[in-house]
Amino acid sequence: MTIAERLGVNRVVVALAFARLTDAIGNSMMAVVLPLYVADLPSPLFDLPTAFLVGLLISFYGIVNTVLQPFMGVLADRVGSRKRVIQIGLVLMSLGTLSFVLAEQYSHLFLIRGLQGIGVAMTVPATLALMTAASVKSTRGGSMGVYSTARLVGFALGPLMGGFLFDHFGFVTVFVVGAALMMLGWLLVTRWVNEDELPASELPKKNEPFKMFDRSIWSKEVMGLGLATIAMTICYSMLAALENEFNAKLAQTAFGFGFAFSGLAVGRLLFQIPIGRLSDRIGRKPVIIRGLIAMAPATIFLGYATTTGMLAMGRFLQGMTSAAISSPAFALVGDMAQAGGEARQMSVVSTGFFVGAAIGPLIAGGLVHVWFQLPFVVGAVLCVLGAVLVYRVVPETITSRPVDPT
Description:
By secondary structure, the chain is mainly alpha-helical. It contains 16 helices and no strands.
């Protein structure tokens, strides 16, 4: 078996991973450019600070994405062609990004961010469903690790590219390049993904009755993984709301906080694929449970950090432990997925990321003034409860391999 086969890499996996990479770059460019663009546009209906206006746009985008993902999972299962849904989603994302050029005032940005949110909501569940169909159980953890790593690389490169393009060429170039990258993802999916080549058992059965809300699709096992994902994401998203508090406590600069904050991405990048492969060998469930349990002390460690280096180490540990949860969780849902319901089931876990990312900063901002370490303790408790939930309701899908007597 080649290295690519061991990692669960094939043409479809590569196409979907690179498509996610390109649209992640295009989307994450907005992290740098959006605040500058909001400050540059008139907002006659909103006499509010720029930071608050930017926060409104980010929250609106997240709400649209989170609310629509389960329904877009239904759509992807219903139409029977996940590739078509991905293509439409990427086109909407590209059009939304390009539309920034046409915005004349702040209120127009809500329509644009809504269009982007719809595009992402269409793309993610359908992509994960196709990843499930294109991978096999014995290497699915590695496949999901490759996909998740490509996404992380995209989100790391996007702000750098966005800042460089803005400094040298201005807003229009950023939006055009971002839109072009998303269309490059569309091209990769169009050329390299052929649903007719995927196993027939993984495709929707068009003659069977379709239930929009099928209790067998959203089972307690899948919901348990979704809740565990929310707990994980709450833990590592809390820090985003506490920059001012940590900068004052540690006497560090914004650069120091950014350096520490990036530790999460480094940890995930290094461990996502190896841990995904580990789950292919020893099972998904034990890896996820251990990841959730290890996330608890890693999160508490952040609250007691006294230097920037300690804060960065805590974030690195969070990245490593979250890698033990995310890729195996996607792979486990893929293992359990019912034919014709993959997009709906995968949307539960993917939505969990967005829900946790919305709740985490609220918990941090609300509790940090009661006791500085309190939000981190609460996050740790949620992770332990998530581990118990996975242990109680989630089955194992990887059976032990027989030992060769020779």
